[in-house]
Amino acid sequence: MRTYLLRGTLPHSLTAPIPLHQNRQAKHFEIAGGLRTTQDAKRTAAKARADQKKQDLTNKTDQTGPGLNKHMRLDMEGDGTVAGPNVTAQSFTFVLERPSQQ
């Protein structure tokens, strides 16, 4: 519906905006103050989590990267020797077949 036509037809007393709060600016400052305190708490918690994560990454004892070294890392024992045959991981081979064209 075209509201400008409705507002032009009805009397102003029916279409005048009604304020939600008497003092809009005071209410804004009240809400903003509450949000500042909660945002500061969230920001502090996020910084603590980031610092902890950064510290965990720098204190990591195993410095091998992902990829082929991961399987060796899983097969290694604590003293650096390769684990026996009963502890090794199974390997799977996937064969991709192309559909025959007819």
Helix content percent band: 40-55%
Which value, in Å, is the CA radius of gyration?
Answer: 33 Å
Order of helices and strands: HHHH
Number of helices: 4
Secondary-structure-derived class: mainly alpha
Q: Outline the biggest β-sheet.
A: none
Flag low-confidence runs. Answer: 85-89
Shape: flat
Description:
Residues 39-59 have a biased composition (Basic and acidic residues). Residues 37-70 are annotated as: Disordered. Helix content is 53%, strand content 0%. The protein is mostly helical and 102 residues long. It is built from four helices and no strands. It is flat and about 85 Å long.
Features:
102 residues; mainly alpha; 4 helices; 53% helix; 0% strand
Question: Which helices and strands, and how do they pair?
Answer:
Elements: H1 3-9, H2 12-15, H3 24-58, H4 68-75
Biased composition (Basic and acidic residues): 39-59
Region (Disordered): 37-70
